[in-house]
Amino acid sequence: MDTLSYKTISGNKATVSKEWVVIDATDQVLGRLSSRIALILRGKNKPSYTPHVDCGDNVIVINAEKVRLTGKKMTDKRYVRHTGYPGGQRFSSPKELLNRKPLAVVEHAVKGMLPKNRLGAEMFRNLFVYTGSEHPHEAQQPKVIYLNEI
User: Fold this and answer.
1) Is the Cβ–Cβ distance between 47 and 114 less than 8 Å?
2) What pLDDT, in 10s, does the model give residues 118-135?
3) Please, what sign has the CA dihedral across residues 139, 150, 34, 123?
4) Largest CA distance in the chain
5) Consecutive H or E run containing 79
6) CA–CA distance, 40 with 59 (Å, rounded to integer)
7) What are 8-47's pLDDT values in tens digits?
8) φ and ψ at residue 32, rounded to 5 degrees
């Protein structure tokens, strides 16, 4: 019997195969879209997943301004940030944020679902969010993923 076939192979930077995928955010619910993006960025959809290695794919999100929120979250949800000065707490709703910075809503949701360490920061750099249906990554020949068909 070949005992080497029972060994668990741990991936590393040299053995990981990273691909490029495109996800269209048109009429997608923000939380469900973000959790799927975070799963792909971490590489948990691959059989070669290794927790301490960045083995996820590069994700391109297009039409980020057309993302959808359920219920009354568009007006009632609050994003909180702080300027660093006393009394510097600032609040904004997704509606205001989509008008001012449409990419920030998707990026904020995905970043919150990634690990809070250096590896999570490295994975976040593999996310590219764009408004509109055009992106400058055609040379990488990205594969289109339809989340409704999964």
Assistant:
1) no
2) 999 999 999 999 999 999
3) negative
4) 69
5) strand 79-82
6) 8
7) 778 898 999 999 999 999 999 999 999 999 999 999 999 8
8) -70, -40
Tens of pLDDT along 69-81? 999 999 999 999 9
Give residue 40's identity as a one-letter amino acid code: I
In the block, residue with structure tokens 């809070």: 116
What pLDDT, in 10s, does the model give residues 59-68?
A: 999 999 999 9
- Token readout for 71 is 């219920």
What is the torsional sign of CA 50, 54, 57, 63? positive
Distance CA 53, CA 22 (A): 22
Q: How far apart are the first and last CA of the chain?
A: 38
How many whole angstroms separate alpha carbon 115 and alpha carbon 65?
A: 25
In one-letter notation, the amino acid at residue 53 is V
* Residue 4 binned pLDDT confidence (cut-offs 50, 70, 90): low
Identify the CA nearest to 109 among candidates 36, 23, 53, 18: 36
- Please tell me what DSSP assigns to residue 127: E
